[in-house]
Amino acid sequence: MKKLIVITAVSLLLTACATPTRYVDPAADTGPVTMTLDYRDFERAADVAVQDLLSSGAVANPSGDRYVMVVSRVVNDTMQRIDTDQLTKKIRVSLLRSGKVVTTTAVGVDGAEDQMNEQIRELRNNEEFDQSGVQQKGTLQAPDLSLSGKIIQRNHKVEDEQQVEYYFQLTLTDLQSGLAVWENETPIIKRGSNDAVAW
Q1: CATH number, domain containing residue 160
Q2: Would residue 95 count as lying in a domain?
């Protein structure tokens, strides 16, 4: 019984000493900077890329229509396990809001991003469904542009510290000609203690 009381008391003491969990407002976050990539880095890289892309004129369609873009492969060449969608989703949202680009989910490097594009078309000629509401042939829009890229990490020793360099490299390709119509590289450089983990 004494052992149980001691264990309970120690558990309560440790819980009372723990830092309480709290929400962080991304717009006002002045918290510590980590050597690894965090949400602020993805936000910054996406913002820089979108502003550069919009100001370049590469997505200004002469006809006034919006370009259809597909997201190709964005390679993670860092020591961290990251989801590159964290970058591409921010870019897609900003471009959609700009009114210049829409993104297709009907095609992708590994097949349709949204499998429902294909599955809904399997309802054609199915007698259980009202065919007037089923998507007909020839309605999907082929992409005009493809966004691809790479995130690179390089570590260096600088005097008594370490420097970690991240490079967000993006390319926009005109799928009709196969030519890159826009390219951008956003570096994010961090320097800190050798004890800090960069992976």
Answers
A1: 3.40.50
A2: yes
Contact yes or no for 184/197 (Cβ under 8 A): no
Residue found by looking up tokens 């919009």 in the block: 54
Length of the chain: 199
Residue-wise pLDDT for 96-152, tens only, equals: 999 999 999 999 999 999 999 999 898 998 989 999 888 989 999 999 999 999 999
Answer with the residue of higher pLDDT: 15 or 184: 184
If one counts the domains in the chain, the total is 1
Residue 198 Cα distances to 47, 109, 174, angstroms: 23, 29, 36
Structural domain for 62, as ranges? 32-104+141-193
77 and 167 Cβ atoms separated by less than 8 Å: no
What are the backbone dihedrals phi and psi of residue 188, each rounded to the nearest 5 degrees, phi first?
Answer: -130, 115
The whole model's pTM is what? 0.82
> Does residue 87 sit within a domain?
yes
Q: How far apart are CA 101 and CA 59, in angstroms?
A: 7
Specify the 3-state DSSP secondary structure of 4.
helix
Report the half-sphere exposure of 37 (CA within 13 A, side-chain side).
Answer: 26
**Cα of 1 vs its chain's centroid, Å:** 53
User: One-letter amino acid identity for 87?
Assistant: L
Taking the CB of residue 75, how many other CB atoms lie within 10 A of it?
12
Residues whose CB falls within 8 Å of the CB of residue 144, separated by 6 or more in sequence, listed in order = 67, 68, 69, 174, 175, 176
